[in-house]
Amino acid sequence: MRKISVLLFLGWVCFLFYAGIALFTSGFLLTRLELTNHSSCQELPGPGSLPWGSQGKPGACWMASRFSRVVLVLIDALRFDFAQPQRSHVPGKLPASLPFLGKLVSLKRILEIQPHHARLYRSQVDPPTTTMQRLKALTTGSLPTFIDAGSNFASHAIVEDNLIKQLTSAGRRVVFMGDDTWKDLFPGAFSQAFFFSSFNVRDLHTVDNGILEHLYPTMDSGEWDVLIAHFLGVDHCGHKHGPHHPEMAKKLSQVDQVIQGLMERLENDTLLVVAGDHGMTMNGDHGGDSELEVSAALFLYSSTPLFPSTPPEEPEVIPQVSLVPTLALLLGLPIPFGNIGEVIAELFSGDKDSQPHPSALAQASALHLNAQQVSRFLHTYSAATQDLHVKELHQLQKLFSKASADYQWLLQNPHRTDVTLRTVIAELQQFLRGARAMCIKSWARFSLVRMAGGVALLAAACFLCLLTSQWATSPGFPFCPLLLIPVVWGLAGAIVCAGLLSVNGLKLDSVVLGAVAAVGSLLAFLWKAWAGWGSRRPLATLLPIPGPVLLLLLIRLAAFFSDSFVVAEARATPFLLGSLILLLVAQLHWEGQLLPPKLLTVPRLGSSAPVGSPRHSGTYALRLGVGLLLCTRLAGLFHRCPEETPACHSSPWLSPLASMVGGRAKNLWYGACVGSLVALLAAVRLWLHRYGNLKSPEPPVLFVRWGLPLMALSTAAYWALASGADEAPPRLRALVAGASVVLPRAVAGLAASGLMLLLWRPVTVLVKAGAGTSRTRTVLTPFSGPPTSQADLDYVVPQIYRHMQEEFRGRLEKTKPQGPLTVAAYQLGSVYSAAMVTALTLLAFPLLLLHAERISLVFLLLFLQSFLLLHLLAAGIPITASGPFTVPWQAVSAWALMATQTFYSTGHQPVFPAIHWHAAFVGFPEGHGSSTWLPALLVGANTFASHLLFAGLKKRQQSPGKEVEARVRPEEEEEPLMEMRLRDAPHHFNAALLQLGLKYLFVLGVQILACALAASILRRHLMVWKVFAPKFIFEAMGFIVSSVGLLLGIALVMRVDGAVSSWFRQLVLAKQR
């Protein structure tokens, strides 16, 4: 088997998994149909004339306008309790000493002294609680679907009807200032705009100060009809410090001053709206659907009386989308076509002298217009797609018909009563709320065919990995010939499918074409492989996983079907990992591989069979196991609690040092972080030094000696600047800002340079030339007392005899002329391991910079765990074992579990609010401009750093011993020692690489398969969008990152192997000359 065949086969297997993930995702996370229809003044939403109160008024459009102007102040992440007035001595309330409570005093004062002019609502937000989706809801009145959360930083222009479009169509002057997300959503829609970059969550003041610079002058100028100001300071403060930090109190106080200034400048025909687009968690994050994230504040104020009654004791809860139809009718605009929100009825009151019960009749008129618009949308949408439930839609239409008939009767009957009016209002509200509930339920639609196809393809790919991992070590298995024809069949199937779609005028779907190609090639491969090879093998080999490992794997996969276990996975994973470590140590002991060497049988005198004794005692392996368990326990101290476990307390060590208030504690933690960085560097250097790899004069070794310390120094300096940037003197802030840009980029540049040097010269050996000496040297077992049994005699006597024989041969050679020149090459026994460790250390430093400073302790534990596990596996492998090298399933399973554990230990959770957005600004504090791929790459590298590192940390060979020497002479071949023994049989080496890759892909594949099955079976579960869907998305992304890391790691090992082969050929040719 050739090396390129291994990469091609693994790449094809990865493609099968990718196709299965894409097919399942296209059926599970579908976006709803966006209609391009628009409402207009010339076309009423339903039959009938203008509603009561609009006839005869100039410019009446559906309903006469109550306000000529609106000031919309959007405070990003303004949670409801940030604005809620604090009442003293109320049992159960949070103390007012918290930084985010009681800071908006102007709202409390206005609500007390002018109760008919202002109102505070609790705005109920629909998930996902990301800014772009909330802006869509606040302007269109529709509901973004779950998958839209992925486009939060790649905003596209809104094609649906919306408030901004209605305002511009009516000739209103819309002025905007703030978050530049609006620029992408509404290109060219504003008469005047002041955009500021929104992505730098570490900057608390630039956007807010920029708005304040233009807000009051623009308002005083009067050259506007609608003024929108989107402040970001509160949201950024939450991301950077959390809501409990003193900076949050400062930002909320600034917001209070802004609101106070606006109310003082407000004219009688102007409505002030202060709204939060979403809330935030106790950690300052958002994106999910926890109570704190979906609870936002909404405050309305007018200098003239606006409400017929005083505010209730507890603020009313209204859906966020209700603001859209309310503002549209108050401004005399058509309600956007796709709105499903319900007007806030109490804002509509009629002229008291014109009709009896004017307030109730005005509210009924507004609700009837709203209901007509929603009914028209449902009719149009159901005709365009089959998403809506037919039975529920029919019931809603009947309810609307009855409510509409009752409303028309009210208009024609002058003897209407208040009870009748309230009945009609209740019927219209019931219809509007039922329509919204039906849309929420229906737009969580699934394509069961695609979901089943994706699950089947993932299951078939897992079966393929399990099957071929057993065939990989079989001599003569023809992977390349078997793969070539199936791939051709797959491509032919995709081409035929594309042709059929084109002929029938259907849209070409890349997901379907990829799935067809994957299924075609997979079925053809399995058919040819089983017919020509698999049918000759016993069926028992199809399930090669050991029973205990299979049991642990099944327990882990079964946990994916329980939302409670998914939430508690951060605690369950260390338990499974510890169990697997204990199982591995016990199995090595049961197999007798950890017994002292002198108790094992060795070949008799004259036998050529190698001695198969292990290198280490059982005590050594036990120490390794205890060390692994200790590292696992220490890593568990770094954890982030899910929102579903309020009793849990997240580790305080996950926050950046800049969020700490005490200077002494910050300095102590900084010292600990730098110490862990030095310990990580020292551990890698000591490992390389122990096996002699630091003695080579090759460029990668020189870079390890000098480049890695420079990277560590730059990292420590960046941490110092980042943790104290806010405390820097004003004259040094420019220097600190410049260094914060240069240092991370310097670390990334040094890492890239080191990797390029490693790819260029991956062989780190020390070559010496000298006179010929003896080719071998006998290794004697240390003296442990006189022989006490026949086994001792069988072991010791042959060694004494061979030693005497070698001494006699040496005396004879001294009398002969000096032999030919010998080339001695040191560090060949660890040539593969050294390259892998060097590459992953270079990769670890940039990844470490993307995390908080104290995560350096987790990275140190990551490398220690890896070294301990690899040495534990090597402890039970005989020094001179022959035959194909097989990676045990226990090792592969433990590797995958350690990747998952490190994912949680670095402060991540498989939910969107837990994503570390600050990673996008490491080295780019001013943002990325219009670029979206670079911040996405940085955030992705931060999130899946553990998957990338553990996929690359694949030192499959047995761990080396001490410095070894391989001599090359004209008349003899190199001696296979440690990792170099793999060169005795290159096909065994390539088969081992292929088998390892297939086993690792199988373990990862069954995880994503279990997540897909759980999401399919529980697709109507209450927690599907909160737990199962995010888990599937994160598991799918983790699989993609891990598989790419696996391919890159195997490619690096093959590059080292090719360089070693070339090096040997050059030595032999040079010697022959």
From TrEMBL:
Output one GO BP term.
Answer: GPI anchor biosynthetic process
The membrane-topology field of this record reads: Multi-pass membrane protein
Report the domain of life of the source organism.
Eukaryota
Gene Ontology molecular-function annotations: mannose-ethanolamine phosphotransferase activity
Annotated GO CC locations: endoplasmic reticulum membrane
Predominant place of localization: endoplasmic reticulum
* Official protein name in the record: GPI ethanolamine phosphate transferase 3, catalytic subunit
